Amino acid sequence: xxxxxxxxxxxxxxxxxxxxxxxxxxxxxxxxxxxxxxxxxxxxxxxxxxxxxxxxxxxxxxxxxxxxxxxxxxxxxxxxxxxxxxxxxxxxxxxxxxxxxxxxxxxxxxxxxxxxxxxxxxxxxxxxxxxxxxxxxxxxxxxxxxxxxxxxxxxxxxxxxxxxxxxxxxxxxxxxxxxxxxxxxxxxxxxxxxxxxxxxxxxxxxxxxxxxxxxxxxxxxxxxxxxxxxxxxxxxxxxxxxxxxxxxxxxxxxxxxxxxxxxxxxxxxxxxxxxxxxxxxxxxxxxxxxxxxxxxxxxxxxxxxxxxxxxxxxxxxxxxxxxxxxxxxxxxxxxxxxxxxxxxxxxxxxxxxxxxxxxxxxxxxxxxxxxxxxxxxxxxxxxxxxxxxxxxxxx
Length: 395
Prior knowledge:
Radius of gyration: 21 Å
Number of helices: 13
Helix content: 25-40%
Order of helices and strands: EEEHHHEHHEHEEHEEEHEHEHEHHEEEH
Distance between the termini: 18 Å
Strand order of the largest sheet: 12-11-13-1-14-15-4-16
Structural class: alpha/beta
Number of strands: 16
């Protein structure tokens, strides 16, 4: 029986979203943002030479039709793209009113978001008193630290020492619909942090805040603070049956790699594997070797977004794309003849753009296992349809 490997390259957008003018970074609309194209253009002009050199080199993604997808999405040619793809390709457009992780992933899994998310204002304080009171009551503290928009690495550097002295949780948000809590994994306690996030999540979800995120860190003021790999997202459950629910209900094993389990509140998922992107790539390779017939493997590679997109690091993003291309090509060579590998994204995060937020973009749909084929313009939900047809899932 066929297997499907659905792989999300987090934030690898290709421009051209028809409603990009409604989404902003700072005061600049996302019109014209194009993550892949702008990285490729920077590489072609020698403007992305930190840890790498020369034109952007993505032979595997290009062979599946990445250049054609960029051209279709945005009308602009991708430097160095293959002229004759051997894979199936298209460009997908999102309808959900957001450019965030849950909206993109849920819609890829067949369920558009039927509501508008709640976002906290970029003010100090960022949170209304009732939210702050809820956190304090659950934490058993007289106050919180932060209460603002911030970068996760910056805020622990700034407030980590005060957190160690007071044990008040560090609470912050971003342009996404999130409420994040950072706490020292040892001095405050990982279980205590997770329990705090779990306790307040229902209240935040009722406000349509998409995720409460636990952000543990370690270290001290002398040597510096650094985040650990024990992040956990407490996300609103999807409002309908996703492709994971449908596959599991039909008896297909569903394996999640990366933060997929958190995004879908563990609904319709049998196993989760986490780690760095390098570790996740090893997990993908292992499941290509060992996943049983009929399996759905759903993966998210987050470091494109978290380490390079939000930090506006063009060279780093290019390096990661080139690493990913080479690594996934190696694993693709071990796919069975009836397997399907779908490579796509959930939104954009153009590292050449103003601000630090995601960018509203179309995303590539690149498929190994169907032969040369042009899908053309697609909806995000059409990707769930590809999965359902290949696994022969009932409606």
